[in-house]
Amino acid sequence: MPAPILIVGQGLAGTVLGWTLERAGIAFEIADAGHAGAASRVGAGIINPITGQRIVKSRGVDELLPRALAVYRAMEAQWGVSLVRAMRVRRFFNDDRERRVFAEKNATGELAPYAGEADAEGFWIEGAARIDMATLITTARTRWRADGRLREERIEPLKAMARHDTVILCTGAEDCGGLAWGEAKCLRATGEILTLAVSGLAPEVILNRGHWVLPTAEGFAKVGATYTREGEMLAGGASAREELMLSARRLLGTRAFTVEAQESGVRVTSPDRYPLAGRNSCEPRLGIFNGLGSKGALLAPWLAHQWVNHLTDGVPFDPAVAMTRFTR
Ligand SMILES: Cc1cc2nc3c(=O)[nH]c(=O)nc-3n(C[C@H](O)[C@H](O)[C@H](O)COP(=O)(O)OP(=O)(O)OC[C@H]3O[C@@H](n4cnc5c(N)ncnc54)[C@H](O)[C@@H]3O)c2cc1C
Q: Domain 1-45+132-186+270-328 in CATH: superfamily?
């Protein structure tokens, strides 16, 4: 007998949802066409509590960060792999405006408890983390393949509904013939990342000024990520590689590095830049879990928790992420 629930897509969203359903004892199958185009294969997995030129705390981070870390730590314990690395971010000021914004916000306490020591060059962000998304999705895939839950194929959601009560689309940038986003508009932005060979970096420190440098393994780091909306070009017409190499030089100072690889992926978000969870208003047996944008590692455990509460007790989705905010 087919399981009542089919998850379509086994990137970060589908994997965290599947794991959360499994923990709740809810039977499911999961289908994925392959990770070739998955953002989760490329995403750096950084959770940074303070981001952006305006130097703001990520929305909801005080609640979402402990929830996310608890989920990834529980996965580590269950699967016997390492997924979470505690990090600090050394954020450099771009200009006097940033210096002033930081000083004002720090004085009011609105960046607490994450803003650490500051000096003329920048400040420290405490409590950041790096989630190894590639290990997360490949570990889950191997396990779900072994227990017969995984279907390695492209799914047509409407056809799949003949066999399953609820089909939840975790399809990232793929819109499944317009079904994945229901009435919501999907905004796409391409991101590129370089892998560098570079030595002498502190393994627990992310360097950040516009772009970031993330140490990954001994002698290696990633620098990223560009952000190019559909139909736009990078500022000044520079290639992603040129733009990232310039940032790497600024952040790494006199350290020598070579570029070993370049990867790209597509982030998706909604018009209000927050994720989407819920049921399609025309076909309620179709569900959505998408729009994780640049903050998938922080947001996915929260959305998965809401899906489980919804399936077990009919709890409505939080209005901040519910599909209903885009339906008339
Ligand atoms: C360059 C870059 C850097 C990033 N850095 C960070 C970061 O530092 N921190 C962070 O939190 N986030 C980061 N992100 C964002 C993060 O990667 C995404 O939010 C997250 O990976 C999205 O996961 P997803 O599961 O929604 O989509 P995806 O990972 O794209 O997965 C979707 C999956 O669905 C499958 N699929 C689609 N349609 C079908 C179908 N019809 N049938 C079967 N399978 C299907 C695809 O094959 C794919 O495997 C970054 C993204 C990019 C591009």
A: FAD/NAD(P)-binding domain (3.50.50.60)
